[in-house]
Amino acid sequence: MWPVGVYPLGSIKCHLLVSHGAAVLIDTGLMGAMRELKIVMGKLNLAPTALKAILLTHGHLDHTLGLAEIRTWSGAQLYAHPAEQIHIGGCFPYRGPARVCGWLENAGRMLFNYKKSIRPTVGG
């Protein structure tokens, strides 16, 4: 059972937090995030502008794929640690065995037509 105001968005690794008519999205997940977000916010009678912020836990593709689309739709501010920008932009220099992760992320960016997002807001 989820606490009041917490809405997990399917299996796409993100959660919508809602309180007093305003919302914050934690991560933007993989495919389907935008669709599920619109459904949940519609059921709650929340306009896109009710989404005030997006908080990224980290910049891996499975947490950021819907980022550009959701920001364009809502105008929400993005908050992430500045060190994550290199991941969000697809420029992290994976080394050693971790290079496999980099190859998978690059393949995912091409396959899903990933749109790089502008720099996150630093601070809170």
Structure description:
- There is one protein chain.
- The protein has a five-stranded mixed beta sheet, with helices on one face.
- It is elongated and about 45 Å long.
- It is built from five helices and five strands; from the N terminus they run E-E-E-H-E-H-H-E-H-H.
- 32% of the residues lie in helices and 17% in strands.
- It is α/β, with parallel strands linked by helices and 124 residues long.
- The mean pLDDT is 85.
- The protein has one domain (6-111): Metallo-beta-lactamase, Chain A.
Helix content: 25-40%
CATH topology: Metallo-beta-lactamase, Chain A
Compute the number of strand runs: 5
Poorly predicted runs of 5 or more residues: none
Range of strand content: 15-25%
Any guess at the CATH architecture? 4-Layer Sandwich
Mean pLDDT: 85
Number of helices: 5
SSE arrangement, N to C: EEEHEHHEHH
Helix/strand structural class: alpha/beta
Q: Number of folding domains?
A: 1
Corresponding CATH superfamily: Ribonuclease Z/Hydroxyacylglutathione hydrolase-like
CATH class category name: Alpha Beta
Distance between the termini: 29 Å
Estimated radius of gyration: 15 Å
Tell the overall outline.
elongated
**Largest sheet, spatial ordering of strands:** 1-2-3-4-5
Largest sheet: 5 strands, mixed
